[in-house]
Design a protein that fits this description.
Elements lengths: L1 H7 L5 H33 L18 H70 L5 H4 L2 H8 L1 H34 L1 H48 L1 H6 L3 H48 L1
Length: about 300
């Protein structure tokens, strides 16, 4: 967490941007939850043949789920009585479109805020690294390989970009999403929600192990790419010497060994990346099936 905050400090106007990101995330999740929480009861009433043409009375105002359900049921059945089921279905479709449109608009604003923050962080961090290197004494460059320094500006910065997005999601968006959806789920069914919360850590544990191995392999891939860049730099800088001493086979073997290792690591990363989605989907289906059996 501290590392993420230190990275985000490279963006100007950080507090204002974080507030905007939080508000856009909150509104986007709220409209998504509203779509799920309001549309389903409306559809249930709409296709319930036992619903009569008598509009149920409104309950006395109170801050409760029963009042909210009574309020929605009263006005929706009134809409069915006045405009018919097809007219009410039209309003349901319009409501779905509007909720999704507003939710996606706020999600777009949230992602654009994160993207602007990301590019500013990367740009300012690159300049900070470059200025720091330029201020070092000349002896430093005798020990440090140019390929390693160049890798800091390429591969490492790519990881910083991912870190910015991940930090915003983990610190601001995901807690808001979890809280809002938990509120909606608890209002629908307390028992099923508690049962779901017991089963979800199983999926989270499996996916967490895959992510942990991915991070380890990603670090190995970055280090290998730094060595490849360094070999290329040394080769191109000393091409005359290599030709003079007929060291071509030695250099070719050296670069072949390193690129083979880099291929092996990247193949392992791809294997785990491609495995994560089917595994999570399979475990999700198992959990949904268990919940359906438990709730039915």
């Amino acid at each position: 967490m501290k590392i993420y905050l230190r990275i985000l400090e490279y963006a100007p106007g950080l507090v204002g941007r974080l507030i905007k990101f939080f508000l856009y995330s909150l509104l986007g999740v709220a409209f998504s939850a509203a779509y799920l929480g309001l549309i389903m009861p409306m559809m249930k009433v709409l296709f319930d043949k036992s619903v009569t043409n008598v509009v149920p009375p409104l309950q006395k105002f109170s801050i409760s789920i029963d009042f909210a359900d009574s309020f929605l049921r009263h006005h929706f059945i009134k809409l069915i009585v006045e405009q018919g089921r097809m007219g009410a279905l039209l309003w349901v479709c319009v409501g779905i479109v509007l909720c999704v449109m507003v939710s996606n608009s706020f999600r777009y604003l949230e992602r654009m805020t994160a993207s602007r923050l990301k590019v500013d962080v990367v740009k300012n961090m690159r300049m900070h690294i470059f200025n720091s290197i330029m201020s070092l004494h000349i002896g430093y460059f005798n020990d440090q390989r140019k390929g390693d320094l160049m890798s800091r500006f390429t591969n490492d910065m790519a990881e910083v970009e991912n870190s910015v997005i991940n930090s915003l999601k983990s610190v601001l968006k995901e807690p808001v999403t979890i809280i809002v959806y938990l509120i909606v789920l608890f209002t629908i069914s307390v028992k099923l929600t508690l049962f779901t919360l017991i089963l979800l850590p199983i999926t989270g544990g499996v996916i967490g192990q895959i992510i942990k191995r991915l991070k380890r392999k990603a670090k190995q891939s970055q280090e290998s790419m730094g060595r490849i860049v360094n070999i290329l730099d040394e080769t191109f800088s000393a091409m005359r010497v290599i030709k003079a001493f007929n060291a071509r086979n030695f250099i070719v073997k050296k670069i072949d060994d390193e690129t083979s290792y880099h291929r092996k690591v990247n193949l392992s990363i791809s294997r785990k990346n491609e495995l994560s989605s089917p595994v999570s989907e399979f475990l999700g289906v198992i959990i949904v099936a268990i919940i359906m059996y438990y709730g039915g």
